[in-house]
Amino acid sequence: MTYETLIVETVGRVGVIRLNRPKALNALNSTLAEELRTAFAAFEKDEEIGCVVITGTERAFAAGADIKEMAPRSFIDNFSSNYMANWDSPARSRKPTIAAVAGFALGGGCELAMQCDLVIAADNAKFGQPEITLGIVPGLGGTQRLTRAVGKAKAMDLVLTGRMMDAEEAERCGLVSRVVPLADLMTVAMQAAETIAAMSLPTAMTAKELVQRAHELPLAEGLRFERRAFHALFGTDGQREGMQAFLEKRKPHFNQP
Ligand code: CAA
């Protein structure tokens, strides 16, 4: 499969998607969103893939939705086509996902990163929701996921002023899992991805789903759901291999064909 706006490859058990519209700072347009759906769907189906990394260039992860594409649109264009409703491929992925962010992650770029399970940032990363400066509001989760990630105080600050925050501030407020030197970004992101992909895939998918539910369920329901999942994993090869390996003082070998 060849893509116009992405570079997609497989490294061991890790699927890697690089946004590839460098001249437009990887602005997200309809073609890119459609290609992301295709790439994520292929990785989702592939049993040999245990984690997906999404990244951009050193200058930009993505500088937002493509303003040139958006500018002529009307309310009815957006409403009729439910514009951007399916620009949520990382959020829909049942497999763990990592955003490796360097440079600008603005508007839809920040929102794309927030759809991923881990955000690993280079020290030059800049996050923001500048939509208000364009006379609009975030449309891909910037008011909802950002507020859940960083709390009301910081979310209001970013969404209402449109200012950017650097990687250090993003880590301090809980948007980012780790900050690393730019030169190490892909090495660290790939190491994290390989570590996750080496775990039992059903277990990793379950762990991801459980943490996601923490945002959506009341505590008592979340705890019940967690306990059921905990019980259920005792029916998997992963549990047998993981515990047997511990008892035999060896490394576990999950996801064997
Ligand atoms: N859409 C389309 N093109 C974009 C773009 C975007 N979001 N961001 C940057 N570009 C293009 C520029 O138009 C420029 O292209 P040309 O050379 O053809 O003019 C090229 O990328 C380089 O950009 P700049 O010359 O502006 O680079 P800079 O270093 O001076 O500034 C920047 C970088 C601060 C990121 C600036 O480009 C910028 O402010 N971009 C827009 C950021 C933004 O507002 N994002 C939110 C979009 S709305 C949204 O995302 C809605 C949503 O919730 C989904």
From TrEMBL:
Pfam families attached here?
ECH_1 (PF00378)
Which biological processes are named by the entry's GO terms?
fatty acid beta-oxidation
Which CDD domains does this chain map to? crotonase-like
- Repressor is among the record's keywords: no
* PANTHER family for this protein: ENOYL-COA HYDRATASE, MITOCHONDRIAL (PTHR11941:SF54), ENOYL-COA HYDRATASE-RELATED (PTHR11941)
Q: Which family does it belong to?
A: Belongs to the enoyl-CoA hydratase/isomerase family.
| Name the record gives this protein | enoyl-CoA hydratase
